[in-house]
Amino acid sequence: MSSIAELLWAEKYRPRSLDEIVNQEEIVKRLKKFVEEKNMPHLLFVGPPGTGKTTAAHALAHDLYGENYLQYMLELNASDERGIDTIRTKVKEFARSRTPPGVPFKIVLLDEADNMTADAQQALRRLMEMYTASTRFILIANFPSKIIEPIQSRCALFRFTPLKKEDVIARLKWICEQEKCKYTEEGLETIYEISEGDMRRAINVLQAAAAIGTVTPDIVYKVVGLAHPREIREMIKLALDGQFQRARDQLRQLMINYGLSGVDVIKQIHREIFSQELKLPEELRVMIADYAGEIQFRLVEGADDEIQLSAFLAWLTLLGQKMRASS
Length: 327
Hints:
elongated, 5 strands, alpha/beta
């Protein structure tokens, strides 16, 4: 295992070229066309976290300018440097500097552009017009609706989708081989389920799990601070079987042992409601999902975790009694 002092794994194993990016074939195909033509419009990359937006921007610049591409790309994280002064100074100064040989433009990369203030976005719109001859802007956002319409209309839109299960697991296996980590197939599948297609999160969970030992489902759930799904399912079954006190005791153990908040628990309950492991009639799944949504809303609004989750288990117990009485 490499020392923690080295680059974070998520950065260390980032693809360096467009050819290395997976699961975004159509996007890569379009970006490669820009590299071939040595020309491109302003770009807007949108999609969930960890799907390769920033990586694609760096890979595009690498393929355009070569190994020293950072000389010709200004990267700003708009969540930190999002004010109008930054846009008017840093971006303007960079836009006025010389262009690289062979490519008639430089690149300004604005990460998390959806966090920019409205004034900064208006200033950016004007700069995109003024320096379009020598500079191309790549904006990255999780929520495109937060980008003002005048900027959206000036950019070619690229939508990134969550990574497929086979791509995530294949990359995790490759990293394990590079780092000499021991793992089980079930452990890597658990990482994928937790990360939900977010490759950056998957790699960081892998690193945390590998630091403890062999990457197994139990270790993965331990490092991410979640209860094992088996324990959540047991709690639901106990309540439906009429064993309210035992179900409540298990709830308290989960919250104490794993340090879970009420929202964490209800989210895991919601996930397990639709699990194939929990064999429930469709009508029952619908009723439980509906009430779980009500409990989650109360918790987010500030209600007491233990009281609300106990009420949820009590409701499950009563529901189970009604179903047994009607059958």
